[in-house]
């Protein structure tokens, strides 16, 4: 771990739904410019963790800190203005708006006090994901992969320092996945963004991430480089089941 | 470019309509009254369009705002709030105050409703609010005139001209405002709240704030329309003004014309005013049946409204 303060830091987070413990004492962090993958089997608690970070859920225990500042209780629109932008697992573009208008929403409302020209920011974000040509299409008429890219552009237009990606590969084919990987690499390379990336497709995560965190049944079972992760016996057990002894 | 031409044409049409009262004999014709009703309907349809069509919050309490606007005018006038010699008839201050009172009620009621309720539940909440206002005015005793309401001095009435002009200004101004909103950053926020609240709030939009602004703006203009209609009837009563029709008409007109479009409610208001007028003049005995049949036909063949059909 680097000596600099992490962009986002989770400290002993626990979350219950009634009697069901969904997250248990989870601590993790994402450093400046780092891409961290968050994986785990179905129902491991990935989405819940995501919603805790974006303050949609309040944890029973522990706290989330963004650049050292406590996030618990912050309203969602202020989370974005502080510098945390996200995409959604089930794509949520504004369907009746054009691609450009979608991105403008981020550029106009999502940036808090970060300065700059709204139109230039929208242009740049659209170019970053390669949707400049399609910017005047109403998103209702766009393909799933284009909408996923558009969500990333809309998030980038908020000029965040942390980007949260919620399964951006879901439903995409091989070539679309490749394109998405390129976009994510570029976003990090050109902007120096920190990225926390939840994904089901483990191979894509292993290719790009600096670090991978694995959770299973609400507990963190591994936190290390992709190479360390694939050789971790707990991880292998979580994905393949316990070895027959 | 096409849009510019439309705005330009709209301006010409409004100017032309503004000249109509100067045509000899025109203010006494039935058509003149029809146009006045059309403007009034456009204003309430556009108000609802702003809240529901653009921001996605289905309000079923518009009749409360219509009534509040009318009662505000009636109470100010009856009690001679600004002194005995003050000219209350078509006083801009009275009209604006009537809108503001409706808007203030919208803010007070909208804050808890919009913060806590979504979708159908918000709609039912506004319906409940509308009924509470109606009952409050019926039971208001001396202050509101009870079920009978308040009579204003109709001796000031000379012609329908001022009603016509104020109605035209209200309808035209509101439509132009909505056109500007549609193209503005403010409009972007409203539409994004309508399309996806969660995505809007996670991109920095304070959704409660924008819902409230839209709800209050819609109430202000509905209130002014109520005041205007009060100026025409000179008798503000629960039956005439706090009637659920004043919620249903704007919805019907906006939806039939195309809600969420700039010109849809204008087209819808014109079409429905024509249908209602035609039905009540030509087939008075089957008026509701005739109007109902037309509404069903339009819904069947143009499910997204007349304006959306024109776009294809």
Please tell me about this protein's structure.
The complex is a heterodimer of chains A (245) and B (312). By secondary structure, chain A is of the alpha/beta class. Chain A is built from nine helices and ten strands. Chain A has helices spanning 46-53, 76-82, 99-109, 118-129, 144-156, 174-191, 202-208, 226-230, 233-240, and strands at residues 8-17, 20-30, 35-39, 61-66, 69-70, 84-86, 162-166, 194-198, 211-216, 219-224. A six-stranded mixed β-sheet of chain A has the order 6-7-8-3-9-10, with helices on both faces. In chain A, strand 7 (162-166), helix 6 (174-191) and strand 8 (194-198) form a beta-alpha-beta unit. In chain A, helix 3 packs across helix 4 (118-129) and helix 4 (118-129) packs across helix 5. The radius of gyration of chain A is 18 Å and the shape is globular. With 312 residues, chain B is mostly helical. Chain B has a domain at 45-242. Chain B is 73% helix and 1% strand. Chain B has a two-stranded antiparallel sheet. Classes of the chains: A alpha/beta (245), B mainly alpha (312). The A-B interface holds A 54, 75-77, 79-81, 85-86, 88, 92-97, 101, 104-106, 108-112, 118, 154-155, 158 and B 185, 188-189, 191-192, 194-196, 198-207, 260.
First-last Cα distance of chain B: 18 Å
Helix tally of chain B equals 14
The counted number of beta strands of chain A is 10
Radius of gyration of chain A: 18 Å
CATH top level assignment of chain A:
Alpha Beta
Q: Any guess at the CATH architecture of chain A?
A: 3-Layer(aba) Sandwich
Q: Low-confidence parts of chain B lasting 5 or more residues at pLDDT below 50?
A: none
* Structural class determined from secondary elements of chain B: mainly alpha
**DSSP helix fraction of chain A:** 25-40%
Proportion of strand residues of chain A: 15-25%
Outline of chain A? globular
The greatest inter-chain interface is formed by:
A-B, 29 and 19 residues
Give the termini distance of chain A in whole angstroms: 36 Å
Low-confidence stretches of chain A: none
């Amino acid at each position: 771990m680097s000596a600099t303060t992490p962009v986002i830091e989770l400290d002993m987070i626990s979350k219950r739904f009634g009697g069901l413990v969904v997250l248990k004492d989870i601590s993790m962090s994402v450093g400046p410019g780092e891409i961290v993958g968050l994986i785990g089997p179905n129902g491991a608690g990935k989405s819940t963790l995501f919603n805790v970070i974006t303050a949609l859920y309040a944890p029973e225990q522990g706290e989330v800190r963004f650049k050292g500042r406590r996030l618990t209780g912050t309203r969602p629109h202020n989370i974005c203005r502080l510098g945390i932008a996200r995409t959604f697992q089930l794509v949520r573009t504004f369907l009746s708006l054009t691609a450009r208008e979608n991105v403008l929403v981020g550029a106009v409302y999502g940036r808090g006090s970060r300065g700059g020209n709204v139109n230039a920011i929208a242009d740049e974000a659209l170019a970053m994901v390669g949707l400049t040509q399609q910017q005047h299409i109403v998103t209702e008429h766009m393909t799933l992969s284009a909408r996923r890219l558009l969500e990333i552009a809309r998030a980038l237009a908020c000029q965040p320092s942390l980007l949260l990606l919620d399964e951006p590969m879901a439903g995409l084919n091989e070539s679309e996945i490749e394109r998405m990987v390129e976009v994510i690499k570029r976003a990090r390379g050109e902007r120096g963004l920190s990225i926390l990336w939840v994904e089901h497709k483990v191979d894509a995560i292993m290719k790009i991430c600096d670090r991978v965190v694995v959770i299973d049944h609400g507990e963190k079972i591994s936190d290390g480089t992709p190479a360390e992760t694939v050789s971790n016996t707990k991880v292998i057990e979580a994905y393949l089941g316990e070895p027959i002894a | 470019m096409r849009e510019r031409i439309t705005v330009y044409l709209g301006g010409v049409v409004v100017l032309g309509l503004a000249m109509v009262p100067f045509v000899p004999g025109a203010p006494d014709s039935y058509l003149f009254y029809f146009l006045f009703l059309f403007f009034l309907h456009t204003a309430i349809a556009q108000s609802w369009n702003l809240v529901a069509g653009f921001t996605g919050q289905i309000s079923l309490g518009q009749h409360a705002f219509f009534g509040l606007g009318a009662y505000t005018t009636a109470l100010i006038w009856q009690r001679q709030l600004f002194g005995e010699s003050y000219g209350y008839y078509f006083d801009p201050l009275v009209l604006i105050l009537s809108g503001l009172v409706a808007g203030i009620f919208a803010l007070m009621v909208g804050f808890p409703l919009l913060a806590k309720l979504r979708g159908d539940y918000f709609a039912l909440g506004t319906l409940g609010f509308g009924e509470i206002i109606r009952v409050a005015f019926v039971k208001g005793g001396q202050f509101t005139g009870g079920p009978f309401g308040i009579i204003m001095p109709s001796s000031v009435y000379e012609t329908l001209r001022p009603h016509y002009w104020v109605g035209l200004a209200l309808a035209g101004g509101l439509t132009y405002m909505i056109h500007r909103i549609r193209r503005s950053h403010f409009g972007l926020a409203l539409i994004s709240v309508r399309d996806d609240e969660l995505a809007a709030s996670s991109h920095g939009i304070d959704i409660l704030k924008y819902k409230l602004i839209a709800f209050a703006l819609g109430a202000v203009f509905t209130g002014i329309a109520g005041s205007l209609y009060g100026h025409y009837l000179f008798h503000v009563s629960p039956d005439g003004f706090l009637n659920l029709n004043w919620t249903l008409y704007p919805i019907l007109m906006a939806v039939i014309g195309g809600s969420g479009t700039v010109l849809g409610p204008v087209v819808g208001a014109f079409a429905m005013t024509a249908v209602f007028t035609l039905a009540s003049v030509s087939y008075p005995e089957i008026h509701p049946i005739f109007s109902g049949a037309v509404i069903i036909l339009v819904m069947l063949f143009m499910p997204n409204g007349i304006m959306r059909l024109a776009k294809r």
